[in-house]
């Protein structure tokens, strides 16, 4: 386990991904929180002792009902399952059917993306069975309070991390950050997050997260990544070969977040060449080439249309990075077209100063807009433009106060 944690942390660092906190469910304070939460649910009367019988997939640590099995195998991984029967404590999930349906109805964004919500709603409408939350066979888990023969089932423990990381119930962090704006999860654990977790929170009298967003899976060249195909892609290798920003951009640009996507090196290089180098990099390079030779006054009126900030912002709030990047690139394209139309190489004096003003401001704004996607590139742009990092409110044409100095190309085309 320590090895895996190390790999995650290394990948995040190399890919320029930052995090505020990292929690492992083996942390002592986490265990205490799990017990506290279970106690609350017990006091509410939502936990009772019964007998569990189910099909268990050992590697996935998941139980399945007869109906969920596909060809009598685990529906998640396709491996063999075994029938397990034992005493167990149950959570009264069945009590929460109406409350969950009401939650989905009143908060249409709670289940995201929309196309995945139907499946959840229909399953909840079909009826909810109580869920077994303890095991007697697994000994390394958190002990169930009040019955030492039982251990809390691993997914209950895992879900609790969202609030144990914030020191629920009394921690300052809990007061500040809860309810969470979004739980971003893989589609394979959507049921736990969209149904069981909110029901547990309701039972414990804790506010619900505002949204659960289930993302899709990547295939590689149209095929599932698998050991037998040997087609695993190492993000670190891709980043080293093409730059971190090219990889980040390709992943966030490929499809709307939520859908399954296909990754191929060919697509990555096409985007690197045609979008990052030929559009974004080229715009900055052209602009600074003109700026280098210009020694007149940088004054003029805005001639380029403002970027569609509202649309970009809305897209980001929906976690639609694909849509946001589409809008940003429309602006980049408009700026490149402006250069072609104005043909600044034929201009001089006041006219040239005006065109240059528009281009420098456009580049400054683009650098801000691109910074969540390609942070290193934005830093390089700011250096060359001689400006400080701005925020969303600075994404409009203002007075240009930078000291532009042409530097290295942002992206080199791959042949
Ligand atoms: Zn499985």
Please explain how this structure is put together:
The structure is a single chain. The chain is an alpha/beta fold and 415 residues long. The chain has a domain at 235-394: Isoleucyl-tRNA Synthetase, Domain 1 (Orthogonal Bundle), CATH 1.10.730.10. Helix content is 47%, strand content 12%. The protein has 15 helices and twelve strands. It has helices spanning 2-14, 28-43, 97-106, 114-125, 154-159, 161-164, 172-177, 190-204, 235-242, 244-253, 265-293, 309-317, 321-342, 349-370, 375-385, and strands spanning 47-57, 62-64, 82-91, 111-112, 131-132, 134-135, 151-152, 183-186, 212-215, 218-220, 223-224, 261-263. The mean pLDDT is 93. Bound molecules: zinc ion.
How large is the radius of gyration?
26 Å
Strand content: 5-15%
Number of strand segments: 12
Can you list the ligands bound to this structure?
Answer: zinc ion
Strand order of the largest sheet: 2-1-3-5
> What is the assigned CATH homologous superfamily of the domain at 235-394?
Isoleucyl-tRNA Synthetase, Domain 1
SSE blueprint and pairings:
Elements: H1 2-14, H2 28-43, E1 47-57, E2 62-64, E3 82-91, H3 97-106, E4 111-112, H4 114-125, E5 131-132, E6 134-135, E7 151-152, H5 154-159, H6 161-164, H7 172-177, E8 183-186, H8 190-204, E9 212-215, E10 218-220, E11 223-224, H9 235-242, H10 244-253, E12 261-263, H11 265-293, H12 309-317, H13 321-342, H14 349-370, H15 375-385
Helix pairs in contact: 9-10, 10-11, 11-13, 11-14, 12-13, 13-14, 14-15
Question: How would you sum up this structure in a few lines?
Answer:
By secondary structure, the protein is α/β, with parallel strands linked by helices. It is 47% helix and 12% strand. The strands form four sheets. It has a four-stranded antiparallel beta sheet. A three-stranded parallel beta sheet has the order 4-9-8, covered by helices on one side. It has a three-stranded mixed beta sheet with strand order 11-10-12.
């Amino acid at each position: 386990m320590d090895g895996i944690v190390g790999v995650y942390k290394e990948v995040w660092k190399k890919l320029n991904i930052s995090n505020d906190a990292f929690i492992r469910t083996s942390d002592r304070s986490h265990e205490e929180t799990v017990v506290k939460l279970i106690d609350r649910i017990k006091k509410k009367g939502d936990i009772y002792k019964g007998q569990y019988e189910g099909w268990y997939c050992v590697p996935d640590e998941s139980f399945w009902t007869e109906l969920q099995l596909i060809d009598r195998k685990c529906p998640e991984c396709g491996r063999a399952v075994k029938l397990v029967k034992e005493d167990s404590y149950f959570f009264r999930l069945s009590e929460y059917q109406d409350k969950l349906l009401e939650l989905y109805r009143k908060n249409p964004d709670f289940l995201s993306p929309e196309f995945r919500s139907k499946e959840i709603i229909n399953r909840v409408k079909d009826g909810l069975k109580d869920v077994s939350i303890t095991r007697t066979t697994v000994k390394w888990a958190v002990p169930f309070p009040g019955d030492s023969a039982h251990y809390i089932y691993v997914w209950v423990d895992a879900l609790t991390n969202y609030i144990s990381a914030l020191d629920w119930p009394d921690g300052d962090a809990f007061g500040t950050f809860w309810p969470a704006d979004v739980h971003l999860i893989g589609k394979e654990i959507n049921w736990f997050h969209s149904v069981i977790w909110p029901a547990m929170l309701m039972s414990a009298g804790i506010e619900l997260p505002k949204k659960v967003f289930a993302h899709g899976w990547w295939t590689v060249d149209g095929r599932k990544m698998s050991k037998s195909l040997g087609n695993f892609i190492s993000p670190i290798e891709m980043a080293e070969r093409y730059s971190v920003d090219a990889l980040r951009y390709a992943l966030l640009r490929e499809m709307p977040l939520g859908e399954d996507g296909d990754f191929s090196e060919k697509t990555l290089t096409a985007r690197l060449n045609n979008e990052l180098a030929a559009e974004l990099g080229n715009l900055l390079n052209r602009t600074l080439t003109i700026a280098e030779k210009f020694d007149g006054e940088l004054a003029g009126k805005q001639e380029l249309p403002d970027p569609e900030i509202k649309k970009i912002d809305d897209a980001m709030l929906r976690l639609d990075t694909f849509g946001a990047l589409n809008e940003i690139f429309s602006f980049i394209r408009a700026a490149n077209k402006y250069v072609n139309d104005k043909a600044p190489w034929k201009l001089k004096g006041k006219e040239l100063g005006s065109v240059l003003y528009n281009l420098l401001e456009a580049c400054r704004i683009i650098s801000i807009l691109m910074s969540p996607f390609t942070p290193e590139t934005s830093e390089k742009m700011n250096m060359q433009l001689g400006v400080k990092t701005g925020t969303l409110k600075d994404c409009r044409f203002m007075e240009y106060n930078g000291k532009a100095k042409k530097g290295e190309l942002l992206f080199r085309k791959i042949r």
